Amino acid sequence: MMVEDFDQEEDERWRSSLLQVIYGDDVREATDALLALSLDEPDRIWIENELLRLLDAPVDRQVRELAITCIGHVARLHRAISQKVIARLHELADDPELKLRVPNALSDIRVFVKKS
Q1: What is the pLDDT at residue 115?
Q2: 60-91 as b/e: b if 16+ CB within 10 A
Q3: Which of 25, 28, 86, 115 has the highest count of CB atoms within 10 angstroms of its CB?
Q4: Is the dihedral of CA 35, 36, 40, 43 positive or negative?
Q5: Residue 49 CA to its chain's centroid (Å)
Q6: Structural contact between residues 44 and 78, judged by C-beta atoms closer than 8 angstroms
Q7: pLDDT-derived band of residue 103, with 50, 70 and 90 as boundaries?
Q8: Which residues lie below 8 Å from residue 105, measured CB to CB, with a gap of 6+?
Q9: Does residue 2 register a pLDDT over 70?
Q10: What residue spans of 1-116 are helical by DSSP H?
């Protein structure tokens, strides 16, 4: 087994274990796991897709709200964000449960993502 294969397997186990907690019943553990995953995941596209998936998932509202905040963290850490994420945030601007988090995430994107 090559080192890269081992690292990839470790990454998959780490992701899988955190996702189990995020989709679990303990909201505090879920938010802690979501924050850890968002701050430590090196694959921006992968974490963006997971955050987008969480926005519509049957999880506690606090987890969904944090997913929006984490989008801003991803933009800050990676200095990039996909257009589909920005479009989804604009769609959520009228969502009664999530709309209060959207302006901060969009602000983070404006501040930290460089226009090319």
Answers
A1: 73
A2: beebbbbbbbbbbbbbebbeebbeebbebbee
A3: 86
A4: negative
A5: 8
A6: yes
A7: very high
A8: 68, 69, 71, 72, 75, 89
A9: no
A10: 3-22, 27-40, 44-55, 61-78, 83-91, 102-112
Would you say residue 8 has pLDDT above 90?
no
Q: Which residue has the tokens 């989709």?
A: 23
Q: What is the mean pLDDT of residues 52-75?
A: 97
Which distant-in-sequence residues (6+ apart) come within 8 Å of 55 by Cβ? 64, 67, 68, 88, 92, 98
Predicted local confidence at residue 13, as pLDDT: 92
What is the residue type of 12?
E
Both structure tokens of 112: 């930290």
State the Cα–Cα distance between residues 67 and 89, nearest whole angstrom.
11
Sign of CA dihedral 60, 33, 72, 69: positive
